[in-house]
Design brief:
By secondary structure, this protein is mainly beta. The chain is built from 4 helices and 12 strands; from the N terminus they run βββββαββββββαβαα. A hairpin with a 2-residue loop joins strand 4 and strand 5.
Amino acid sequence: MFTGIVEELGEITAVERHTDSRRFRVRGPLVTEDAGHGDSIAVNGVCLTVVEHGGGEFTADVMAETLNRSGLASLEPGSRVNLERPMALGGRLGGHIVQGHVDGTGAVLERIPGERWEIVRISLPETLARYVVEKGSITVDGVSLTVVEAAAGSFTVSLIPATLELTTLGHRQPGDIVNLEVDVLAKYVERLLAHGGGAGAPSEAVAAADGGRGEVTG
């Protein structure tokens, strides 16, 4: 599990292409300082598994499903990427719960500069629109952000100076593709309600936790 708080702005140093997959070599001295074979590192919001590591770099394999669903297929040597290690048990949840499982992609539509910050509008696939709400959380290229406006077919986020400086979002231009992961809690709620977990579910849960007495205190 990740939090959407980018630790390091890394760089793709090599891309090995195969018929239905790719192997990326990524430079990231900070995220590799304690990395081991099989560990997870989020690259632009996509959870990847470390295959090899050393010299401040690591390699990771990306299968066709991930290439088709995310923007990783466009990465070339020299591309900058957002890197984050999984949250340690007992660590601070600085952003929100991020799985590293990208739901789809959007395109940067416009950037509206402010005095020290920017508002960025991003297109939103129709299949994901129901999970995006004003003041809710969304992950864009691995960055945990708060939705400012949820419109038909798009949403906006505000980027503070730190985000502009320390992540790829400071350099994304209209037309650029970004990875999107909606808040997993919204998907769980939808699933629960679709299977009859609406009315009565909370009281049933309390009753089960209370040994069947159904008592509520406090």
